[in-house]
Each structure stands twice: as C-alpha cells, then as structure tokens.
Amino acid sequence: MAAAPLLPTHRRYVNGVPVPQRQTLRMSEKFMVLLIVAAFLFVLVGAMFFLPEFREKVVGPGEPGDIFRPQPPASPPVEGLKFHQHDFDPVENVARDVVDSPKSRGKQELEIEQEKVLQEARQVLNKFGDDDVKNDIKQDKAKLQLQREEEEKRKQEEKNKELLEVNRVDTGAVGVSGGEPTDQDTKMKRDKIKEMMKFAWDNYVQYAWGQNELKPISKRGHSASIFGNSAMGATIVDGLDTLYLMGLMDEYKKGRDWIATNLKMEATADISVFEVTIRFVGGLLAAFAMTGDQMFKDKAVMIADKLLPAFNTPTGIPWALVNTKRGNGRNWGWASGGSSLLAEYGTLHLEFAYLTELTGNSVYLDKVKRVREVISELDKPDGLYPIYINPKTGKWGQNHASLGAMGDSFYEYLLKSWIMSGKIDNNARRMYDQAMTAIDKMMVQKSASGLTYVGDYKNKRVEKKMDHLSCFSGGMFMLGVEGAPEELKNRYKELGTEITNTCHESYIRSATRLGPEAFRFEGNVEAMSIRQNEKYYILRPEVIESYFYMWRFTKDPKYRDWGWDAAQALEKYCRTPGGFTGIRDVYNPNPAQDDVQQSFFLAETLKYLYLLFSEDTLLPLDSWVFNTEAHPLPVKTSLGAKDSHANDRR
Ligand code: DMJ
C-alpha cells in the first residue's frame, strides 16, 4: 500500500485533462517550513530569558540585559580599595582583571593596575565633581600608602630578624666568664664595680642610646671629632665585651642587637683611623673572639675596609683621618708639618693581623707589615722613635719622643704583637726591647725623693713631666718581663714596679685621690700638676691598667687596695645621677665636672677594675692579649682550646 500524502492535494486539470498528482513537497517548500519552525522556537526561547526564575537559574541575579555586559566585582579587588560603579570599564575590563588574578601577578604589576584604577577614578571624579568620591579616593590612597609602608616594614623586620639570629662558630674562647673571687671582701668589691658598669650603661641607654657617648649632666648624647659627624654608638661597641665579661647579659644582648641592625659607619666627615681601629674594630673583634658570633666579625671587616684608603700614601704610612664616603685621607692640621703620629699609625697591628687571620685576606696584615718595615729601616735618633713622620717622604719630623701622648701605644703594640703571634714575631720583640732600652737610657728619670718617671724627650732634653697616658707603661714593663733578654728582666720588673708606684703617688697627692692629666717634678713639687690645664681627670684607665698587671704578676695585695681606693674616688667625685663624668681639677674637693662619660671608661677603666678583683681564670694572660682599648684578642697558640663556660650563656 502506498503511503498517504503528507499534505492535502487537489486535482489539477490542464485543458480539461487531469494532470498527474505529486505525492511529496518540493525541497524549497520543505526549507520554508523548517525556517518558520526555527523562527518560532527562537522567539519562544528568547522570551524565556526574561522570566526571572529562569534567568536566576542560568546566570544569577541581575537586571535583564546584564548578561550581555561584563559584571563589576562583588567585592573590592584589593583590600582597602573601594569600588564605585563608574570605576568599572566594560571596554577595558579592568576590574575583572584586578579581581581575577591579583595573586598570580607580580607586586609591581598589581601596583600599576591599582594606580590605573585610581587614575580612572580620578577621571570620573573630574567628570562628576563628586565630593564623596573624592574623599573615598583620598582614603583609598592613604590606605594604599599605609599598605605599602607596612609591607616595607615587614620586609625590614624580616631582614633584621636574620641579622638578629646569632650565627656562632667555635673560636675556642678561654675564660670569658666566671673568675669569681673566693673571699667575701673581694667579691663585694667586684660586685660594686659591676654595679658601676651597669649604672654607666643604663644612663647611656636612657639618655644617649645610639650616640657615641653620654653627657651625664646634660643627659644627652656627646660626640668627639674622632668619630666624625655621625652617631656610631661608640659606647655600645666599646663597652660590649665588658658587659659580657661581667655577665650583664640583657645589656649585652641589647648592645649586640643594636650593632647588628644599626652599626653602618656612614660618617660623611673624616674619622680617626686609630680611634676607630682600637675602639670599633678592636671591640668587634674581641666580641667575636669571646662569643663566636659571626656578625661581629662581619662588622669588623666592614669597618676595616672603610679605613683601608688611609694607607694610600707614597710610603704606606697611613693618614690619621679618612673620609669613608670619599675614600681619601689627611692628617691633623695641628700635627707638625702635616705629619702622621707614631701612636696612631703604629697602633693598628693587632687588629689588622687578627683580621687577616680570621678572613684569610692578606690585605690587612700587608698594610701594617709595610708600616713596620718603613720605620724599622729608618735611623732612630738616640735609638728613639720620633712621634712625627711625613707619610709622603717617610722622613721623621721634629726630634720629640714620648711614652705618653702620641707615642705610647706604638711600644705597647710591639710587645703585644709578639705575644699575640704566639711569641713567634721576633722582629716585633726585638724592636720592643731595643726601644725600651733606649727609653730607659734617655727618658727614664728619678725625682729628688726617688720617684721614677718617664719624661718626654725633646731636642736632646727630658721634660720633667709625666703624662697620665704614660702610666700604662708600668703594666707594660711587667708584661714584657717574660721573653725578655736575661739582662733586661730585672730592670723591666723594677721599672714596672716603680712607675706604677709613681703614678699611684700622683693619685694620692690630690684632694680627690684621682690623678691629673700630667704631673711634674720641679723644685719641691713631685708627682703633681702645677699648670691649671693639666689638672683634669677624664676617667682615664692607664693607672688602674698598671695596677691590674702588677696584681696579676706579683699578687701583692696593695694593688687591689690602690684599685679600690680609685674606685671609691670615682664614686665620690665622678658619679652623678645621670652617669659618670670627668672632673676639671683633681686638687679641688668640689671639682667642676666636664660632663662627658668617655667610652673608654666602660671599655677600659671599669674592665681593668673588674679584672683586678677577679680570679686570674677570667681572661688568662697566656690566652688573651688586650689591645690598647682593653679589648681582649686571642693569643694564637690558644686558638682551638675550649671554654668550659662558653655555653653557659648561649
Ligand atoms: C684610650 O683610648 C686608649 O688607651 C689609647 O691608647 C689612649 N688612651 C685612651 C684612654 O685614656
């Protein structure tokens, strides 16, 4: 059976003759039908989009028509950045970018985008002049700024944390803690010295933290020209090893962390090569040697490197001053004919030699070896080393030798270089013994009443005057007995004993029982100052330093008594509510005060006093050698030994 036609048909006739009928639609007709059906369906489905239920299901809530446009973000793209309707640019699609991928982009890109958004907001603002928008943008900007600052702060804190983390190595430090005396009297005295140190430190912390020194009466910071023009925390660096030795560990930690994060040595003015070496490089190296904390070593290297340009002279004898920014040097204007000074260029050896040993970098030792070569080859008038030398020509200046100001620590470093080398630097030892022999012959004097003193030698005459600074030599002579040629041993002992005694006399002949800056032997006057400008005492250590050495080598209790006497005088005349001060006239029972707490008071005076009342196990002299600022550096042969207390405080 044939299939029924799809559409009704009707018979067609042509000239009365029936035409045979089609049973199906033509192609064009089928297409037309399909088109009509499709159009109908399209209109139907399209209309459904306008039904709210349907729309919500498919595209979420919103006004009809929104689906054809990108959506602004539901929340601000970046915390603190508000989004306004006009902030959104459908063409650029900026907001979507910011929302979609802030984390995946670099901070810089994010900031550029944030800036762009703000820029656009600003344009809109101009267009609309809307005060609210203006305020909002202001706030957004402030928040953004705050965010940036917080990020910076966070980064800095992370960096600081790294610096504050203590990275130690075993330096084999011997006897850097303990040394407690067994008898109660000595223990009480030692505790008192510790209290004085804490008092000096606490006041510095309170009134001058980060400055070089403290003005205890004005209660503010102080800086001498030797430190250039910036606050470099001289008291912190100079006093740190004393705090550590005394077991003042909270104070030590505070100082240590300041150094880690703040010590940069960025003075724009000239700084003293000698002072920075003995106080800063020496202080940091001692702190490293005692604690093994590598931060101290890194800082010492950083500072020493800044001093190196000072050695760029035709002879290699360094300038007294160096400009760390410009990297050039010069000498003190007042030093005879632009000379370099013996006590300055000749007191770098210990620190620079130790730096080379620690870093393996020969540059430091090479510099000081060169200095020694130059002067050892020069003729010495009367066997003495003049205090002035021209660093360009390598020629001595005026004929003036001294064991006090401008000469002193050069001799000290000859002896101590030999000791620090493990007694193998025989060249230094020889130079020392020859120099001491010449000094004994040409400069050591006896007063009418039999006091031994060392005067300056000027144009073939000896001045009948001794500097407080020269009083360190009592201890030095005693320290140099061991290893001296046999024929010199007794003389060194004698000189050590007698010079220390004379310096003690200069103390007990004053109303304050503190010694003057210089004292004379003229007429009836012995071991006293005559001139007003020599009567001051600025908390210097040299006399107490000699008591310490004499005590260590002789165990004569008088040295402890003398030290205690000086400590009591310091308490009575130099202690003020804001720290310790120097005085202007040791012969006045009510002396005017100079209002400076010198950094060497903490580094040296109080350290030597503390050691004087400690057992010899604290910094034993066969393991440690003190630089001229009393910073202990390890004797070479002792490296590798262990400190039984070393871990107590870590
Ligand atoms: C210290 O800085 C050093 O001891 C230096 O060698 C000379 N004198 C002062 C303290 O008096």
Describe the SSE topology.
Blueprint: E1 13-14, E2 17-18, H1 27-48, H2 52-59, H3 94-100, H4 107-128, H5 131-164, H6 184-208, E3 213-215, E4 220-222, H7 234-246, H8 249-262, E5 271-272, H9 273-291, H10 294-307, E6 321-323, E7 328-330, E8 340-341, H11 342-345, H12 349-359, H13 363-377, E9 388-389, E10 400-401, H14 408-420, H15 426-442, E11 444-446, E12 452-454, E13 457-458, E14 461-462, E15 465-467, H16 473-479, H17 486-508, E16 518-522, E17 525-528, H18 542-554, H19 558-574, E18 575-576, E19 579-580, H20 599-612, E20 624-626, E21 632-634
Antiparallel strand pairs: 1-2, 3-4, 5-6, 6-7, 8-9, 10-13, 11-12, 13-14, 15-16, 16-17, 18-19, 20-21
Helix pairs in contact: 4-5, 6-7, 6-20, 7-8, 7-9, 7-20, 9-10, 9-12, 10-12, 12-13, 14-15, 16-17, 16-18, 17-18, 18-19, 18-20
The structure holds 1-deoxymannojirimycin.
Can you walk through the features of this model?
It is a single chain. The protein is mainly alpha-helical. Helix content is 48%, strand content 9%. It has a 3-stranded antiparallel sheet with strand order 5-6-7. The termini are far apart. Residues 409, 469, 540-541, 600, 604, 628-629 line the site of 1-deoxymannojirimycin.
List keywords for this structure.
3-stranded antiparallel β-sheet; 20 helices; 21 strands; 9% strand; disordered N terminus; binds 1-deoxymannojirimycin
